[in-house]
């Protein structure tokens, strides 16, 4: 997993940490410049925690240990000031709104890139490449991500589905061939319908992939593979979950290109066939 944007990651995942880990997190956020020169024991003493809590905190952040945390903090401090996340205020002018939305999108993508586990991306891409069928499911804004998955892998010649009716989805998954994949999408990792279908997919023998905001959850623990996007801080206005959508679509694009590159000649051939089919359909519609 990448170590970029670690301070933003800590800030956003703070509410999900244990009390002892939160002590460590708050100290890191309050004095990152000091942390890079500390030992584990010094860190434990200054944060009023324990060495074990410091190590657990590092692992909760997706890091191997305290040395990697210091490297990540050093990298963050060497960068320009982050763009940051901003909420909307009453009677704001359009120019300010454009700047804020752009800043939120850029920060979300930066944080997500910092979370990327390239080995996991490659494993998931090969799993999707070998799958006879792919089922993607999400609710609300996550349903748009599921549809994007289905459309992209249809272009690669896969039997890919983004079914919103749980009964139809259940029937389809029950008869899916061995090696088929279920992708459960929930930014909060707490959508009950997604969790329900993840459990059914496991019971049915499908390969399971969770796609959530960063952090441990029942959904990610259940799945064979876990994909994470950054967690943005809570905001009063979340118009169509814009920040999470940008990050989720970005991860899907990365997976799509990695999957397509496994056999680029075959992928390009299949993509061209779908393009030709759509163009033919448009010509027929125009003639009518």
From TrEMBL:
Domain HTH rpiR-type: 4-80
Keywords noted in UniProt: DNA-binding, Transcription, Transcription regulation
Leader sequence segment: none
Keyword Nucleus applies: no
A Pfam family: SIS
The name this protein goes by in its record: MurR/RpiR family transcriptional regulator
Transmembrane segments: none
Naturally occurring in which organism (per UniProt): Paenibacillus haidiansis
PANTHER family: GLUCOKINASE (PTHR30514), MURR_RPIR FAMILY TRANSCRIPTIONAL REGULATOR (PTHR30514:SF10)
InterPro entries recorded: Homeodomain-like_sf, HTH_RpiR, RpiR-like, RpiR-like_SIS, SIS_dom, SIS_dom_sf, WH-like_DNA-bd_sf
Source organism, top-level taxon: Bacteria
Domain called SIS: residue spans: 124-265
């Amino acid at each position: 997993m990448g170590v970029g944007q670690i301070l933003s990651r800590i800030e956003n995942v703070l509410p999900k940490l244990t009390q002892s880990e939160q002590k460590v997190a708050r100290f890191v956020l309050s004095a990152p410049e000091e942390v890079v020169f500390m030992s584990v024991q010094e860190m434990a003493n200054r944060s009023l925690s324990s060495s074990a809590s410091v190590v657990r905190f590092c692992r909760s952040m997706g890091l191997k240990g305290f040395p990697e945390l210091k490297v990540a903090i050093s990298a963050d401090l060497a960068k320009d000031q982050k763009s940051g996340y901003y909420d909307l205020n009453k009677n704001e002018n359009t120019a300010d709104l454009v700047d804020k939305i752009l800043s939120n999108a850029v920060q979300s993508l930066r944080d997500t890139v910092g979370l990327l586990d390239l080995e996991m991306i490659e494993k998931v891409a090969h799993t999707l490449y070998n799958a006879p069928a792919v089922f993607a499911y999400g609710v609300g804004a996550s349903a748009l991500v599921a549809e994007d998955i289905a459309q992209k892998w249809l272009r690669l010649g896969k039997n890919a589905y983004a079914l919103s009716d749980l009964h139809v989805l259940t029937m389809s998954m029950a008869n899916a061939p061995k090696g088929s994949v279920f992708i459960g999408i929930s930014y909060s990792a707490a959508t009950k319908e997604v969790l329900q279908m993840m459990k059914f997919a496991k019971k049915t023998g499908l390969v399971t992939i969770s796609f959530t905001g960063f952090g441990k959850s029942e959904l990610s623990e259940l799945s064979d593979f876990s994909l994470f996007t950054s967690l943005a801080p809570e905001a009063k206005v979340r118009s169509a979950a814009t920040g999470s959508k940008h990050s989720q679509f970005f991860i899907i694009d990365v997976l799509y290109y990695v999957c397509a590159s496994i056999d680029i000649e075959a992928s390009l051939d299949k993509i061209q066939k779908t393009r030709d089919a759509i163009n033919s359909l448009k010509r027929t519609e125009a003639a009518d």
